[in-house]
Amino acid sequence: MRGFIGLAAATLASFFTQSLADPTVAHPGGVDDIIITNDNILNSTTTREFKTESAFKINAAQSGAFPINVLNNFGSGMYVYVTGKDASNVPVLLGTNGQYVYPQADNTGVPKQITANIGFQLNAQGQNTQIVLPQALISARIWFAQGQLKFYTVKDGNGVSAIVEPSAANPADPSAGVQWGFIEFNYDGTTIYANISYVDFVGIPLGMGLTLATGESQIVQGLQAGAVNNICSGVKSQASADGQIWDRLCTVSSSGKALRVLSPNLYTSANAGAFNGYYDNYVNQVWSKYTSQDLTINTQVSAGNVACRVSNNQLSCAGDNRAYPKPTTADIWGCNSGPFAIIASDNDVHRAVVPRLCAAFTRTTLLLAGGNVQPSLGASSYYTMNPTSHYSRIVHQYETNSIGYAFSYDDVNPSGQNAAGVVAGANPTNLKITVGGWS
C-alpha cells in the first residue's frame, strides 16, 4: 500500500459530490485541484517493490546502466517519464540528462510543480527511442503520455520530499486532459520484474518484451490498438443493458475524446456509494448455498484443498486462523478490505484463501456448475453470470491473448493457466516497450 499524506485541496467526499456526466468529462485544474491519496503519492514508505529492501540494496550497489527501448506506434506528441525510488529509498525521477532528479519540496504544504527536464519526447510514429536507467530503481513506473504530464512534490508526514503523480481518478487533476498509461517495474541491478496492469485504469495501449542474457525472451503484447475507444463503447453498452453506471468509468476530454477507463475499484474510491449493493443478492445466494455444502478452496500451496462452510453468517475454512464475513461490493472490487484484508498474524491458509475467494466473487463463478471448487473453472467461465465485473470482462476482450491484470488477483487461475501481464528475470539485457499496439 502506498503512503498516505491526506488531501491537498479538498476531501474526496466533497470534491465528488458534484453531478458527473455520463461519461465523466475531464476538466483539468491547477494546483488547488490536486487531490493526494495513496494512489498518486510516491514517498519513502511506498511499497511497490517485489523484493526486500536488503536484497535490493545489495544488488543495487553492483548495478549498472540498463537500456529501455520504446517503439512509438501511437502518434505524435508522445512523452516518456520515469518515477521510482533509488537504492536509498528516496523518490526520484529520471532526467533527460540520464541522471536521477531529486525533487525538493518547500514547507508550505502546497504541491510544487517539478520543473526539471524530466520528459523524454519520443521519436516519430514507427520509430524507436532509447532511454537508459543509470542504476537500480524500484517501486517504479514508466509513464507514456500524448502530451506533457505534470508532476509535483510536497513533503510527506515525515518531512521528506515526495512525488505527487498524475491522478487518473481525479477529473480535475492538472494532467486530466492528457491521455496516459504506465508500466510498473522493479530493477534491482540484477533482476527485473515488470507488469502491465489495468487494476486501476486503462489508458494508452502498451506492450513489452524482455530479453535476458541467456537469450530467453518474454513478450506481453498488452491491449490492442484502439482498445480505449472500444472499452469505452463496451461500458456504455453495458450501462444501457443493466442500468448500472458503467459508462461513468470512461473519462473523456471536453471534445469527447476517450482518454481512459477507470476500474470500478478506482472509481468507487473517489465516488463513495457508487455501485452500492451491486453484489449483495449474489453474496446472499453464495452464503445460502455453502451453508449446506462445502466450498473447497484449492490453495495451490502445501495446504492443498481446504473445506469451507458458512456458519453463524461467516465462512470458515479448515486450518484458517479466522473466518470471513460477507463482503460488500466495495470489498469485492478492491480485494483488500473487509473479509479480504490480510493482516500480519494471518496464517498461510488464510493468505491463500483470500485471493482465490475474491477472484471467485469478482468473476461470479461460485454458483456455476463446478464452482464449488475454486479455482477449477477456466477463463471461458469467467464473467458469464450477473452481477459480475464487466470492466474486467471488457478489458480482457481487448487484450491480446487476454493477458494483463484487470483486478488485483487476476493471476488466480487453475494450474497451468496464466493471465498475468508480467515479464521477469535475472540479468536482463533489454526491455522493449511498444506504445499504441504491439509490433
Automatic annotation (TrEMBL):
<dbReference type="InterPro" id="IPR037176">
    <property type="entry name" value="Osmotin/thaumatin-like_sf"/>
</dbReference>
<dbReference type="Pfam" id="PF16483">
    <property type="entry name" value="Glyco_hydro_64"/>
</dbReference>
<protein>
    <recommendedName>
        <fullName>GH64 domain-containing protein</fullName>
    </recommendedName>
</protein>
<dbReference type="InterPro" id="IPR042517">
    <property type="entry name" value="Glyco_hydro_64_N_2"/>
</dbReference>
<feature type="signal peptide">
    <location>
        <begin position="1"/>
        <end position="21"/>
    </location>
</feature>
<dbReference type="InterPro" id="IPR037398">
    <property type="entry name" value="Glyco_hydro_64_fam"/>
</dbReference>
<keyword id="KW-0732">Signal</keyword>
<dbReference type="InterPro" id="IPR032477">
    <property type="entry name" value="Glyco_hydro_64"/>
</dbReference>
<feature type="domain" description="GH64">
    <location>
        <begin position="63"/>
        <end position="437"/>
    </location>
</feature>
